[in-house]
Amino acid sequence: MTTIEAATAAAPPAQTLPTVIPRARLEEKEISTGVVMRLTLEGDQTITEGQQNLHQFGEVGEQLALGQWLEVSNDANSFWALMRVAEIHGTRSTGCRGLHLQFIVPPRQFDRQYEAPVATGNWYARWLGPHKKWAVISPTGSIFRSGLITEAEAQSHVFGRMSSARPL
């Protein structure tokens, strides 16, 4: 055996490189499945994975797409889950006829209770969760205005109502 034959016989096999991933395989997720949606359940409600109640999801189900992500929480901030639409049947014109959701990560539970606004006799501002955001509560305990982005904006409305001579 010559030295060249001995060197090639002892050489390890050539490594094969992985195939190059073409740029066309990368796309923005929103193009194919829509944006990540946030669903805020009322009060202390929670949700489980699996087939969903069509009565409960009738309005929002038709806005979802297969594979779309859904961030779910509640008004009490006692529950949070990141879910994925695993199966959906129906269209916006026919309505949602079937919806199956799966957890992407396990749901989180927090030791909090929903506290409804109460009558204090004074105007005040309060955080009412990710859906209603900051709100102005009237002296009778009813929500006068909600959806305010900052606490300062809500306090501004409170001070405006307190200095106003107009009755409720």
What's the layout of helices and strands?
Elements: H1 3-10, H2 29-33, E1 37-41, E2 50-51, H3 54-61, E3 69-74, E4 79-91, E5 95-109, E6 124-127, E7 134-137, E8 143-148, H4 151-163
Parallel strand pairs: 1-3
Antiparallel strand pairs: 2-5, 3-4, 4-5, 6-7, 7-8
Shape: elongated
Helix content: 10-25%
Cross-sheet strand order for the largest sheet? 1-3-4-5-2
Q: Per CATH, what is the topology of the largest domain?
A: Archaeosine Trna-guanine Transglycosylase, Chain: A, domain 4
Q: What is the class of the largest domain in the CATH system?
A: Mainly Beta
Give structural notes:
With 168 residues, this protein is α+β, with helices and mostly antiparallel strands. It has 2 domains: 32-109, Archaeosine Trna-guanine Transglycosylase, Chain: A, domain 4; 124-163, no CATH class. The chain is built from 4 helices and 8 strands. Strands 1-3-4-5-2 form a 5-stranded mixed sheet. It has a 3-stranded antiparallel sheet with strand order 6-7-8, covered by helices on one side. Strand 4 (79-91) and strand 5 (95-109) form a beta hairpin. The longest helix is centred in the last third of the chain and has 13 residues, at 151-163. The radius of gyration is 27 Å and the shape is elongated.
